[in-house]
TrEMBL record:
Chain ranges of the Tyr recombinase domain: 5-131
InterPro entries, A to Z: DNA_brk_join_enz, Integrase-like_cat_sf, Integrase_catalytic
Name of this chain's protein: Tyrosine-type recombinase/integrase
Pfam families attached to this UniProt entry: Phage_integrase (PF00589)
Signal sequence, renumbered to the chain: none
Record organism: Aquimarina celericrescens
Highest taxon, organism lineage: Bacteria
Keywords from the UniProt entry: DNA recombination
Length: 147
């Protein structure tokens, strides 16, 4: 993400896997985190996260390597945060995506989840969410056992 990707209170970005142009509303919590990075901003073309400032965007291998290193670093930070708040489970950036799926459970309609997950096929979203939606099965079991 570069600073010019943020405008109209949204993050505008392109998906790597399908090159679709997308945008997300920037929440207050995210804005407060972004504010922490503004001191290192040199221009609107600059990357937001300092870990990518030295990456050569035109060199795919270099950019991939720097992105991978940054992700490892962020995962390390997540582990530290989890330790401080006494979360015992494994935490990574990828697991955070699954956590969203788990938290959304049956609160968000499947078509909206498809859009939020950026899945091109609804079947992918249904299969993905099947790992998290337990309410119907729990209620069915309760209706038999706790009659």
């Amino acid at each position: 993400m570069r600073w010019f990707d943020f405008y109209d209170e949204r993050l505008h970005y392109k998906m790597n896997k399908n090159s679709k142009l997308l945008s997300l509303k920037i929440r207050e919590k995210a804005l407060s985190i972004l504010d922490c990075y503004k001191n290192s901003k040199r221009s609107d073309k600059d990357f937001v996260f300092t870990e990518l400032k030295k990456a050569n965007f035109k060199d795919t291998k270099d950019f991939y390597a720097k992105t991978k290193t940054a992700t490892k670093k962020f995962n390390k930070y997540l582990v530290e945060v989890a330790r401080k708040v006494k979360v015992k489970k494994k935490v990574t950036m990828h697991i955070a995506r699954h956590s969203f799926g788990n938290l959304s459970e049956d609160k968000i309609p499947m078509k909206m989840l498809q859009k939020l997950h950026r899945h091109s096929d609804l079947k992918t979203t249904i299969n993905y969410q099947a790992n998290f939606i337990h309410k119907d099965a729990d209620e069915a079991l309760d209706s038999v056992i706790n009659f």
